[in-house]
């Protein structure tokens, strides 16, 4: 007899209990039953990758029988992603006899990475296996190319395969390859806007936001300016829009700054015809002999016909150089409701398309009605382009915000659908269709770049309710990764029917479209994110992901070796997603050094726009060695990067202690600097930087004085102000006449009449002092006699070095004053206001400056001696101002550079191109413009070589010697493009609201 023991264990309340038992055996035990037959599934391979629209991939399925299984198994594949199919739909497989599925993806299949279940059933038996399925396409062509600035209009030259795009944001014409869309040339053109090619096929004509049009030779890229001044209703006109005709005439819109559409420059108060052979401008008038106010111009490809809407609808013939008209309600029935919104002409002008709010109507040249197409959404206004396709079978209507095209069948007159030209997030007010080409590509200017859309693909059908379905929307990734690292991220919301590419690499969706894995990169910098829907329509998130640390640019290039002012560094990889910095600007979690010296107080300037990874840092510049070329190095948790030779430390400045300085004036006759004070004129020797004996005011000078001027021959220094009040009446103007050499006694001259002068004075070549006002005054220094000066609205007056040219500024305008007769020639630009004025040494050019204390930076108007407004300044993205204006804008001796001081820096502007040549940071704050006292005198002066700057500053007089004379300064090559820059609060709008506030927060 055998006795067996059994053991049982139980877990109870954390303890293990062993239970034993025994029993008596009376004989042999029964054997266990044999195991039941079963099977398993085996896959080969266990994972496949299928390309949308490409060849399918096979998966071999084998049945492995166990315990004598000999039946057949029905095998099916579980739920597949949308657009993916399996063939056949099921298999019957016997053990040892594998069969194969073919998995294919349609061209509209979504890029995904999922685990797919393969299921087998045989009677009551089941088994399954897991297949890793990846749907991944090939890299897509880059649809967006960063250019910089703002592209607003374009002309595509088919013979040269070049796109010529106007870029007022950079004061240039961009020449872009039609093959790889790279920039072939950047041609300096002042404030370019509209563009067309002359009938010679070799000359471009460009309209501008100025008083001129421009022609450019396409072979040599030489630029010719054609200034012209005229006005309508008291406002000077700009000439932004042009179309070139076969007869050599160019139709030009005249645009006043006070009309309703002054923010878009597509419309105007008048229409002119420019004769390219003679250079003459002629006004075209309506049938009622009134100026032709119009919105937009259109011409046929053969240059024979042009059309525009005004009081009537006009068709221009270049053969007759004449106009034919029909009432507006003829082309825009019924009764011209909501007005004509746009128009286009077919290649030979045989078909005219006119868009209203709700439909596009088509006519022949006799205005016979051909048909109309209802629009799914109201067409907008003159900002939107309307163009025929090259073969005339299609019509493209541009809509904005977001940017997209509605395609119209111009033969059957139906709306076909839409194609996107947008980027995400879409908020660029200058976004627009530039042009199309014969290859079926549309070129859009948006977000500082060029967006290309393939018009040959079928458009996305309009929605069932006849609305635009809208462009695909890219998820906002805003991901920052170290080099070589990938990252799996959750999407803000599940993505359906959308394929995502990061830097051109397809990125499959994970976890039912709720996550993606951003691929790694070994190249530092940003990449775009492209999103394609199942129609093939696309949108782009510019700089949606960045890798490593990529410093792009430094805000200033000339640094003081001491003083530690604030500067800014821009780039990628400085910090994480910008949503962390919505409301605060935390200290930077990293380090910044310049020339090997650690910068202090580094703080982040976070983006207020989700979806971009562009970064900016503010910090104090460390001390450096004069003449040192310094690199900027930054380290963060994402890595480190260096911006080589980012800036230069200029020679050590001198701050001469002084108080009470009101104005500076350099005497080139004696090489002395005069500094006006309330009771004297201090005299500085520039060689020794020592104060000499001042020019004392005589005892009779008891008034208050705020300006001075030196006669062109240098013999008399005149100080202007108001006499001490003797009653409640306005104190009379008073002048002190000083001999700088001290050979003649000073005199005090008081005007006995009534004058309400501004305080600004200039001395002419006729030895007369001019002080504007209401009325103003003229003082003849030869006779000491006064005479009234009629009011010409000016508040600030400046003269050329020899006194032969006299200019003034007033609200909304500029004036040239004859120094002998005081006759005034003026130009008024409504909504333009100037605070300062500079005149070149020879008087051939002037610059008006608007730098009010309410905002940072300045707007500059550049004029010739005939008061043609020819250009304005444009800031580079990487050197935005952060402080208010200081009076004292001045030209370099050769007139090539305009010096404009701000509180913490001095800007050097190229007077020919309107671009920033350099930014010099000052060692201490300069004396700022004060409102409303009406300061009118310069607080900055240059020596005759243009190499030494004198400026009134916080503790006295700052003297800065530049590395080279201003007329020889080398321009800084700031990168022209900043991906995502127009979305940054510190790069547009009231810049001071953020950057100046940032400066105030920095540790002192």
Describe this structure as you would to a colleague.
- By secondary structure, the chain is mainly beta.
- Among the domains are: 38-125, Immunoglobulin-like; 163-281, 7 Propeller (Methylamine Dehydrogenase, Chain H), CATH 2.130.10.10; 479-547, Sandwich (Immunoglobulin-like); 563-650 and 994-1001.
- The protein is flat, with a radius of gyration of 37 Å.
**Contiguous runs where pLDDT drops below 50 for at least 5 residues:** 1-27, 579-583, 981-995
Q: Which structural category do the helix and sheet elements fall into?
A: mainly beta
What about the largest sheet?
Answer: 6 strands, antiparallel
Indicate the CATH architecture of the domain at 163-281: 7 Propeller
- Number of strand elements: 89
Helical content class: under 10%
Quick summary of this structure?
With 1004 residues, the protein is an all-beta fold. 1% of the residues lie in helices and 47% in strands. It contains 2 helices and 89 strands.
Walk me through the topology.
Blueprint: E1 3-12, E2 15-24, E3 38-44, E4 47-50, E5 57-66, E6 72-77, E7 84-87, E8 90-94, E9 99-105, E10 113-122, E11 125-135, E12 144-146, E13 153-157, E14 162-167, E15 172-177, E16 183-188, E17 192-197, E18 203-208, E19 212-217, E20 223-227, E21 231-232, E22 235-238, E23 242-244, E24 249-256, E25 267-268, E26 270-275, E27 281-284, E28 294-295, E29 298-299, E30 305-309, E31 313-317, E32 322-326, H1 328-331, E33 342-345, E34 352-355, E35 359-363, E36 369-374, E37 386-388, E38 394-399, E39 404-409, E40 414-420, E41 423-424, E42 432-436, E43 441-446, E44 449-454, E45 479-481, E46 487-490, E47 498-502, E48 505-507, E49 509-510, E50 515-518, E51 525-533, E52 538-547, E53 550-554, E54 558-559, E55 566-572, E56 591-594, E57 597-598, E58 600-604, E59 614-620, E60 629-636, E61 639-649, E62 654-657, E63 663-667, E64 672-676, E65 680-685, E66 690-696, E67 704-710, E68 717-722, E69 733-738, E70 747-750, E71 762-763, E72 768-771, E73 776-780, E74 785-789, E75 796-799, E76 806-810, E77 813-817, E78 824-828, E79 836-839, ...
Parallel strand pairs: 4-11, 41-52, 45-52, 54-61
Antiparallel strand pairs: 1-2, 3-5, 5-9, 6-8, 6-10, 7-9, 10-11, 12-44, 13-14, 14-15, 15-16, 17-18, 18-19, 19-20, 21-22, 22-24, 23-24, 24-26, 25-28, 26-27, 29-30, 30-31, 31-32, 33-34, 34-35, 35-36, 37-38, 38-39, 39-40, 42-43, 43-44, 46-50, 47-48, 47-51, 49-50, 51-52, 53-55, 55-59, 56-57, 56-60, ...
């Amino acid at each position: 007899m055998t006795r067996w023991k059994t053991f049982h264990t139980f877990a109870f309340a954390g303890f293990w209990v062993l239970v034993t038992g025994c029993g008596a055996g009376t004989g042999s035990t029964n054997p266990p039953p044999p195991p039941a037959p079963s099977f398993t599934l085996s896959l080969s391979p266990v994972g496949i990758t299928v390309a949308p629209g490409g060849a399918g991939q096979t998966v071999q399925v084998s049945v492995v029988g166990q315990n004598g299984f000999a039946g057949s198994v029905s095998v099916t594949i579980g739920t597949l992603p949308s657009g993916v199919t399996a063939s056949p739909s099921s298999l019957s497989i016997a053990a040892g006899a594998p069969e194969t599925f073919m998995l294919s993806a349609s061209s509209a299949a979504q890029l995904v990475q999922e685990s797919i279940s393969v299921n087998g059933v045989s009677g009551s038996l089941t088994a399954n296996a897991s297949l890793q399925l990846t749907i991944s396409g090939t890299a897509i062509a880059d649809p967006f190319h960063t250019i910089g600035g703002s592209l607003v209009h374009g002309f595509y030259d088919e013979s040269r395969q070049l796109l010529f795009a106007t870029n007022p944001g950079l004061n240039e014409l961009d020449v872009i390859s039609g093959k790889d869309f790279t920039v072939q040339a950047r041609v300096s053109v002042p404030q370019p806007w509209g563009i067309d090619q002359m009938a010679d096929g070799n000359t471009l004509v460009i309209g501008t936001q100025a008083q001129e049009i421009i022609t450019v030779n396409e072979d040599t890229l030489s630029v010719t300016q054609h200034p012209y001044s005229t006005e309508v209703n008291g406002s000077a006109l700009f000439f932004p829009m042009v179309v070139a005709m076969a007869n050599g005439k160019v139709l030009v819109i005249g645009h006043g700054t006070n009309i309703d559409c002054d923010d878009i420059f597509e419309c105007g108060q008048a229409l002119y015809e420019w004769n390219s052979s003679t250079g003459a401008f002629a006004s075209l008038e309506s049938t009622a002999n009134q100026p032709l106010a119009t919105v937009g111009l259109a011409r046929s490809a053969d240059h024979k016909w042009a059309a525009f809407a005004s009081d009537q609808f006009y068709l221009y013939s270049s053969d007759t150089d004449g106009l034919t008209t029909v009432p507006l309600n003829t082309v825009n029935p019924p009764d011209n409701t909501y007005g004509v919104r746009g128009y286009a002409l077919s290649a030979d002008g045989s078909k005219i398309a006119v868009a209203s709010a709700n439909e596009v109507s088509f006519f022949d040249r006799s205005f016979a009605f051909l048909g109309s197409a209802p629009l799914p959404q109201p067409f907008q206004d003159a900002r939107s382009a309307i163009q025929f396709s090259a073969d005339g079978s299609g019509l493209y209507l541009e809509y904005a915000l977001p940017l997209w095209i509605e395609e119209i069948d111009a033969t059957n007159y139906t709306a076909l659908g839409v194609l996107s030209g947008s980027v995400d997030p879409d908020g660029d007010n200058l976004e627009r269709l530039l042009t199309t080409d014969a290859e079926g590509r549309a070129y859009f200017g948006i977000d500082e770049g060029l967006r290309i859309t393939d018009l040959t693909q079928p458009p996305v059908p309009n929605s069932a309710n006849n609305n635009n379905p809208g462009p695909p929307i890219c998820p906002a990734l805003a991901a920052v990764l170290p080099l070589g690292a990938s990252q799996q991220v959750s999407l803000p919301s599940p993505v359906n029917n959308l394929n995502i590419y990061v830097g051109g690499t397809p990125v499959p969706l994970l976890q039912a479209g709720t996550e993606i894995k951003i691929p790694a990169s070994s190249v530092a910098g940003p990449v775009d994110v492209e999103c394609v829907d199942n129609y093939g329509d696309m949108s782009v998130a510019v700089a949606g992901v960045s890798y490593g640390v990529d410093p792009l640019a430094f805000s200033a290039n000339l640094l003081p070796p001491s003083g530690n002012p604030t500067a800014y560094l821009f780039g990628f990889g400085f910090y994480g997603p910008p949503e962390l910095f919505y409301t605060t600007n935390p200290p930077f979690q990293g380090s910044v050094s310049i020339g090997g010296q650690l910068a202090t107080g580094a703080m982040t300037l976070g983006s207020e726009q989700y979806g971009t990874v562009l970064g900016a840092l503010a910090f104090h510049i460390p001390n450096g060695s004069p003449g040192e070329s310094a690199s900027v190095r930054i380290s963060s948790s994402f890595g480190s990067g260096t911006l080589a030779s980012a800036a230069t430390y200029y020679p050590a400045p001198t701050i001469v202690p002084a108080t009470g300085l009101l104005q500076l004036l350099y005497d080139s006759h004696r090489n002395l600097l005069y500094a006006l004070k309330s009771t004297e004129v201090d005299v500085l020797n520039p060689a020794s930087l020592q104060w000499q004996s001042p020019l004392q005011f005589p005892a009779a000078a008891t008034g208050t004085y705020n300006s001075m001027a030196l006669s062109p021959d240098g013999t008399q220094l005149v100080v202007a102000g108001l006499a001490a009040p003797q009653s409640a009446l306005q104190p009379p103007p008073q002048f002190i006449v000083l001999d700088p050499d001290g050979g003649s006694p000073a005199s005090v001259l008081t005007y006995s009449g009534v004058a309400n002068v501004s305080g600004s004075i200039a001395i002419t070549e006729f030895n007369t002092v001019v002080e504007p006002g209401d009325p103003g005054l003229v003082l003849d220094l030869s006779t000491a006699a006064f005479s009234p000066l009629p009011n010409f609205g000016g508040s600030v007056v400046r003269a050329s070095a020899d006194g032969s040219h006299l200019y003034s500024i007033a609200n909304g305008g500029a004036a040239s004053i004859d120094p002998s007769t005081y006759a005034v020639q003026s130009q008024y630009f409504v909504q333009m206001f100037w605070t300062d004025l500079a005149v070149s040494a020879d008087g051939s050019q002037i610059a008006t400056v608007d730098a009010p204390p309410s905002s940072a930076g300045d707007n500059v108007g550049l004029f010739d001696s005939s008061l043609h407004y020819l250009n304005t300044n444009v800031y580079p993205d990487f050197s935005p101002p952060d402080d208010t204006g200081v009076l004292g804008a001045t030209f370099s001796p050769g007139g090539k550079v305009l010096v404009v001081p701000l509180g913490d820096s001095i800007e050097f502007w190229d007077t020919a191109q309107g671009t920033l040549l350099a930014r010099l940071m000052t060692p201490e704050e300069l004396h700022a413009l004060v409102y409303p006292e009406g300061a009118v005198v310069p607080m900055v002066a240059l020596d005759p070589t243009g190499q030494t700057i004198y400026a009134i500053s916080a503790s006295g007089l700052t003297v800065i010697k530049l590395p080279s004379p201003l007329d020889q300064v080398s321009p800084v090559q700031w990168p022209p493009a900043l991906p995502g820059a127009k979305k940054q609060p510190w790069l547009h709008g009231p810049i001071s609201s953020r950057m100046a506030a940032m400066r105030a927060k920095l540790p002192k």
